[in-house]
Amino acid sequence: MKKLLSVLCSFVFTALPITSYSNPARPDSDTDRLENCAEVMHEILDVPDDIPQNLLDKAKCVIVLPSVIKGAVFVGGSYGRGAMVCRSAPEFKGPWGAPAMMRWEGGSFGLQLGGQATDFVLLIMNDRGAKAILHDKVKLGADASIAAGPVGRDAEADTDVTMRAEILSYSRSRGLFGGLSLEGSSLRPDNDADQIVYGKAVSAEDIVLTDKVPTTPAGQKLVDVLEKHSPKLDSASK
Fold first, then answer.
1. 106 strand-pairing partners
2. Which helix (H) or strand (E) holds 187?
3. Which pairs with CB-CB distance under 8 Å and at least 24 residues apart come from 88-94?
4. CB atoms within 10 A of CB 229
């Protein structure tokens, strides 16, 4: 009987999705998350053959999800927390503004033993996609079109898929970087984390589209990376 209980307990703990973030009750956990977002973005953008510059210059917003870990037995699941930074002003044409915290949820079926950390970067290419994500939970591929983003400085970025997609997605795992579609997963604002970061209840829309809250020191690190690599929106953006 004891052996059976031990096996059952092991199964329960192994089947639970593994997440990489610290206890959300800790006041510094979301600050750490912002700093991790900045580090991931810095490392990816400092490699010229990763995200094409012309696509980054056309992006209205960028979402960074650092160290997402998926790992479960029989039914796999992924859960990530990160931040969304947009070009300010109602039409997303100004300088990069304060980050809003985000939650990402994905699922897959099959054996997934030994969680593997993956960084995700999403480029939001138009106003509609940005406003949909800021307003409510969206299912990628259904509520907002998404495609695997092309990579490399010489990548053909004007394909039909790229031009039609509202979101272009990228992943980095074990040093390998490339486009990866996250169709079927979902994104939504992390309102609880925003309240911790900014010290008051504030919506993701207000953070991004207004000046109701100042950028925190941790958030400014992420903003500075984007300002360095893409200070102005390409006027040819959708």
1. 78
2. strand 186-189
3. 88/208, 88/209, 89/209, 90/209, 91/127, 92/60, 92/61, 92/127, 92/130, 92/233, 93/233
4. 16
Residue matched to tokens 């939504």: 188
E strand segments, 59-111: 61-72, 75-86, 100-109
Q: Which of 10, 210, 182, 152 is nearest to 79 (CA)?
A: 182
Q: What span, in angstroms and rounded, lies between the C-alpha atoms of 154 and 175?
A: 20
Q: What is the mean pLDDT of each run of 10 residues along the chain (238 residues)?
A: 44 36 49 94 89 93 88 56 91 92 74 63 94 92 91 64 84 84 91 95 92 93 97 75
* Residue 103, CA atoms < 13 Å, CB-side half-sphere: 14
Q: Is residue 100 a contact partner of residue 63, using CB atoms and an 8 Å limit? A: no
